[in-house]
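Forum > Structural Biology > Help requests

Title: Can anyone predict the 3D structure of Elongation factor P?

Hi all, first post here. I have the sequence for Elongation factor P but no way to get a structure on my laptop. I'd be grateful if someone could post the C-alpha cells.
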Amino acid sequence: MATTNDLKNGIVLNIDGQLWTVTSFQHVKPGKGGAFVRTTLKNVLSGKVVDKTFNAGVKVETANVDRSEMTYLYNDGVDYVFMDPDTYDQVSVSPETVGDSAGYMLENSTVTLARHEGEPLYVELPASVELTVAHTDPGVQGDRSTGGSKPAELETGATVQVPLFIETGEKIKVDPRDGRYLGRVK
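Reply #1:
Sure, ran it for you. C-alpha cells for Elongation factor P below:
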C-alpha cells in the first residue's frame, strides 16, 4: 500500500484486480476544497488509457512488478522463449503478451521482461533497435517538393516507412514503440 503522495511515473497500481501503470500525475491544490491527484493510467494488459482522480492522502494498492533483463532466444512456433542471462532459466511468453514488440526482436537481443507474481505482463524493448532492410523497392524521385517515403520490410518481418534513399541490405535504426525510422547505422 502507498498513499497518493507516493505516486510516480512507472509505478504499477492494483485497482479492482487490474494492473495499471501511472503514465502521468499531477498534484492539484485548488483555492477551496481538498487537494487531489490527477493521474493518467494505462492498463498493463490491454493498453487502455484512462484518467483517474484520487483525493490527496488516500491509500492505493501497489503491485509488485519485477522487471528483469532477458535474452530473446527464439520463437518455438507458438511462444517466444526468453532466457535469464544470470541463471540461464528459460521463460515462454505468449504472442499476445509480446505484442507488436515481436516485429523488432532479433534472436539473442536483450529485452526487459516485466512480471507480476511470476506471470509475464509485457516485453519492453530499448528506445531504438538496429535492423537490416530485407527488401524495399528502389526509390524514384518524382514531382514533389518534399522528401518522400516508401515501405521497407525488415529482417524480422516488420514493415516501416523509410526515406527514398534507403536500399535493400542497409542497416537502419527504428523506434520499436511506434515503428518510426530514426536513421541509418554507419
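The first strand starts at residue 2 and ends at 3. The helical segments are 95-98.
Shout if anything looks off.
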